Amino acid sequence: MAPSVEVISPTPVPSIEAKLDQKSASSGFIREPLKYSGSLDEYKSFDVTPVIGREFSDLQLTDILNDEAKIRDLAITVSRRGVVFFRNQSLNSDEQKILGQKLGELTGKPATSKLHRHAVNNSGRNITVNEHGKLDDEISVISSEVNRKLYGNRFFSDAQNLASEGWHADITFERVPSDYAILKITHSPEDQTGGDTLWASGYEVYDRLSPPIQKLADTLTAVHHQPSFNKIAQEHGIELIDGDRGAPENTGFDFKASHPLVRTNPVTGWKSLFGAAGQVDNGWIEGVSKYESEILKKYFRQLIAENHDLQVRFKWETNDLAIWDNRSVFHSATNDYDGKRQGNRVVSLGEIPYHDPVSKSRREALAAEV
Ligand SMILES: O=C(O)CCC(=O)C(=O)O
Ligand SMILES: [Fe+2]
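A: This is the predicted complex of the input protein with fe (ii) ion.
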C-alpha cells in the first residue's frame, strides 16, 4: 500500500560500515579519541564559558608552528572546546595554511584531504590576501564589501531579517567537509565596534536531546545543500571551481551531500548534532516525512539559536584569530556594522563524516573522565 504521507527517500549513501572501511583504508584514521599531552599548559589560557571556547592570552602561533606535539595538542583543545581564540597574531597567510593542514594531519585525517578551495570565495573574486596583491585559492577572503555586493542587504546593519538565520557550519555540502577552520581578522570593523562572531556547541545540543530523541537522531542522515552558488555565479559572471576542491571527492556543481545527522568527532570521540541550521535549510532529513523533516530542522535550529548558554561570542580586534572544529560547532557572523571588515579564512578538510554507534556524548565522556 502506498504510504499515506510523503516520505523523503534516502539518497543512496554508503553504509556506516562501508564509510568506516573506506576511511580506515584511505587514511589509517584514528578510532580511539586522542589524548592531550599537556604541552600547552605552560601558556596562559582560560575557558570563555563552561561549555564552549578557550582563549590563549599571549601565545603567538608562529612560536609553536614547528612543534608537532603542541600543534597536535592545539587541535585536541580546539576539538574539545569547539573554538579557541588568540589575540593579535603575527601569523601570515602562508603560515595560516601550514597550521590548517597540520591540525588535521597530526590528528589522523586522510592523506587525500588538503585545504579547501572554495567554489566561489576564491581568487577569482580578485580580493588579495595581503597588501602585496597576493591571490590564493586556498584562502577565502571574508570581506564585508564583497558579501554586500554578492549577497545584498542582509550584510548591512539595517537588514530586517532574523540574525539567527546566520547559524551554519562551513562547506558541509562537500562530500569531504571541513575539520578545522582558521579565521584571522585583518581589518576589524571600521565602525570601531560590531562584527562579533558567535559559536554554538553541537556536542551540547546533542546532550540537550532526551534519550528517545537522541536514539532517533542517531539513526538519521540529512542532505546538506547549497543552491546559491550556481545562482550567484550566473548573476555575477563568476566561474565556479569545479575540479578538486581540496579532496578528490569534492567535485561537481551539485553542492549537495548526505551526512549522518549525528556525527562522531574522531579527535574527541564525542557525538555532535551535525545536520542542522544553515547547511540543511535547503536540504532535508532523510527517511522521514517532509513535514517531520521541517519540524525536526526547526527544533534543532531553535536549540542552537535560543540556548545562549551553549554559545560563545567573540569581539574582534585587528589580527585576532579563531580556530574552530566545523564537525562539532555552528557559528554565525553579526552584520551590525556598515564599514569595511575583512579577514583571511583557511578551511581544512577532514574525513568523510561518520556516526560511530559506540561513541559517547560529551557529558557522558566528561563524567567518565573524572
Ligand atoms: O565573518 C565572520 O564573522 C564569520 C564568517 C564565517 O562564517 C566564516 O568565516 O566561516
Ligand atoms: Fe562560516
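DSSP finds ten helices and 15 strands in the chain. The pocket of 2-oxoglutaric acid (ligand 1) is lined by residues 142, 170, 181, 183, 197, 331, 333, 345 (CB under 6 Å).
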